[in-house]
Design a protein that fits this description.
Elements: E1 2-4, H1 14-20, E2 29-31, H2 39-44, H3 50-61, H4 67-77, E3 91-95, E4 98-102, H5 113-116, H6 119-129, E5 135-141, H7 145-154, E6 160-167, H8 173-180, E7 187-193, H9 196-208, H10 210-218, E8 221-225, H11 231-234, H12 237-250, E9 260-265, H13 270-280, E10 285-292, H14 297-304, E11 306-308, H15 329-336, H16 341-354, E12 356-358, H17 361-370, E13 371-375, H18 378-392, H19 398-414, E14 420-424, H20 432-440, H21 450-461, E15 481-484, H22 488-496
Helix pairs in contact: 1-6, 3-4, 3-12, 4-6, 12-13, 18-19, 18-20, 20-21
């Protein structure tokens, strides 16, 4: 069963939580109790495939889904048609005790595919379980990657339409083209004049406006979300952390029970929160290292206990992390405060009204036991891509480079000798201009358009262009809508003809 982080809503089933997306009264759904693996159960996963681990994890959290429903969803999501690597999320040895977990082998070349290939199946079953016959409209705010992954996952799903909002001129050209060339009658894409936080706040506001909700209800429509505010999106991300540990165990790189670190480049805090849930389930984790770019609101929070979004917004070369309001931090604070919904409500109200809040020292002490945080600026990010390529031949994207640099700083500061896995959250080809410039110098871009840069990067690195990024120049741009953040609701009404 699932409860609200603000103690302002009835306890619901997994299917209800996934169907609703977020708590209608404000807040996020979290499991009442986190299920745990016994030592013996954890040991038994050692030789399991990605699909088998997904089945086990999802079964523990989705009480009201049958084994067959979960199995069908897993098979439909994690297969050779959707993922171009048989291991789904392979580990690459980089140096000494450092590994990279490649989470970008899905259809859209980003880690969001890991969850968004299965989430539409979980949502379809959820609707049937609760007897929901209305059309579902999925609203998505994206900083770049979630948008295309959600469009890909939900396109052509019966009874569902999806509208994606992204910051106008705030994503890479490749990311934009991935979204705006999506061809399906149930997909819609809108550029919003502003940054990601403007998109996210506008979408959240739509969810919380009761009058608009009633208007949609009369039109036979209900809203849901595919952002990581939806538990059905966050839950599948737990799987790849457990899978990574089992890969290392099977390959003899660690002994059972040995604790390892995970480094997670993050903006909205969902990816690293999934690792924390894996830890709570019994996965031997030593430290979670939260990596931010120059929009380092999370780094500052974890180092001071004060969350403050009242600062300048920086547009970086790692745009999926250009976020100042990290939605999933609410879930984490709810867990770390001992499920104190009253406290969470007060903090979130303070954030909305004043742009910040401060948490108790006791909570910060508890967080410090499991989590470290750091950031990398633009110069460090670029330098890391070039240096790692030069030293190892491995090509990092801009987000993964942030994670790598933050880990290097952490290692220098702490001397922590635990084996460490760095999340590679996107293919380097998604951010081809920045990556090619970092490894080949600024002159490498001269005279080349977006598609020529893709080819140049492929030739320089010896890697094929990711299948999801090929031939984008041959696809027509089908979505050209642009609006201000104040007009998001009107744009939705226009799209839905209400």
């Amino acid at each position: 069963m699932y409860t609200s982080t603000r103690d302002n809503y009835d306890i619901v089933s997994a299917a209800q939580a996934i169907k609703l997306g977020m708590v209608p009264a404000g807040g996020l759904f979290v499991p009442e109790k986190i299920p745990c693996f016994s030592l013996q159960e954890m040991m038994s996963l050692r030789d399991s495939t990605y699909q088998e681990i997904a089945q086990r994890v999802l079964t523990l959290f989705l009480d009201d889904y049958t084994e067959e429903e979960i199995q069908t969803s897993v098979k439909a999501a994690y297969n050779e048609k959707n993922f171009n690597h048989p291991l789904i999320a392979p580990l690459k040895h980089l140096r000494e005790k450092t590994y990279v977990m490649e989470l970008w082998h899905g259809p859209t070349a980003a880690f969001k595919d890991m969850a968004l290939q299965i989430m539409p199946h979980l949502l379809s079953y959820a609707k049937k379980k609760v007897g929901e016959e209305r059309e579902t409209v999925i609203l998505v705010a994206t900083s770049g990657d979630t948008g295309k992954a959600a469009l890909e996952g939900f396109k052509d799903v019966p009874g569902v339409r999806i509208i994606v909002f992204y910051p106008h001129k705030g994503v890479s050209k490749i990311q934009e083209l991935q979204m705006t060339t999506t061809s399906s009658s149930n997909t819609f894409v809108v550029a919003v004049k502003g940054n990601f936080d403007d998109c996210q706040n506008a979408v959240k506001k739509v969810f919380s406006e009761r009058e608009f909700g009633n208007e949609l209800k009369r039109a036979g429509i209900e809203l849901s979300s595919a952002n990581s505010i939806n538990w059905g999106r966050l839950l599948p991300q737990i799987v790849y952390y457990i899978n990574a540990y089992m890969q290392l165990l099977k390959d003899g790189k660690i002994s059972f029970g040995e604790k390892i670190n995970f480094v997670v480049p993050t903006g909205n805090f969902g990816n690293i929160l999934a690792a924390w849930y894996a830890l709570q389930m019994g996965l031997p984790i030593n430290k979670l290292i939260c990596a931010s770019n120059e929009n380092k609101v999370l780094t500052d929070f974890f180092n001071t206990g004060r969350y403050d979004r009242n600062r300048g917004f920086v547009q970086t070369t790692s745009p999926s992390m250009d976020i100042l309001i990290s939605s999933n931090l609410e879930r984490f604070l709810y867990e770390m405060s001992g499920h104190d919904g009253e406290k969470i409500s007060a903090w979130m109200q303070e954030l909305a009204e004043n742009g910040g809040f401060r948490v108790d020292q006791s909570i910060m002490d508890a967080i410090g036991e499991v989590l470290a945080a750091g950031y990398a600026d633009e110069i460090e990010t670029k330098e890391t891509i070039g240096r790692v390529f030069s030293e190892t031949g491995y090509t990092l994207d801009t987000h993964t480079a942030v994670g790598m640099k933050v880990y290097e700083k952490y290692l220098e500061k702490t001397g922590d000798s635990a084996l460490t896995v760095v999340d590679a959250t996107a293919s380097p080809f998604k951010f081809n201009n920045s990556v090619l410039q970092a490894i080949a110098g600024p002159d490498a871009l001269i005279g080349k358009d977006e598609y020529e840069v893709l080819q140049a990067l492929s030739e320089y690195t010896g890697q094929p262009v990711h299948p999801g990024l090929r031939d984008l120049d041959k696809k027509p741009v089908l979505h050209r809508r642009i609006c201000t953040k104040e007009k998001v609701q009107e744009e939705i009404k226009s799209i839905l003809n209400i």
